[in-house]
Amino acid sequence: MRIPAHSVCTAIRDDIVAGVYERGGRLTEELLARRYGVSRVPVREALRTLEAEGFVVTRRHAGACVAEPTEQEASDLLEMRMLLEPLGAARAAQRRTEAHLKVLRGLVRLGQERAKRGNSEDLRSLGGWFHETLAQASGSPALIAMLTQLRHKIAWMYAVEAPASPVESWTEHGAIVDAVARGDGERARAITALHTERATAAHRLRFAGGQDRTDRVRTSQHPVNMSSLRH
Question: pTM above 0.70?
Answer without folding.
Answer: yes
